[in-house]
């Protein structure tokens, strides 16, 4: 579950950053 959370948060940051 930790991996899924990290992936979701990371994707959200990248999407917002880009």
From TrEMBL:
<protein>
    <submittedName>
        <fullName>Uncharacterized protein</fullName>
    </submittedName>
</protein>
């Amino acid at each position: 579950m930790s991996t899924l959370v990290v992936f979701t948060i990371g994707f959200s940051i990248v999407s917002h950053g880009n």
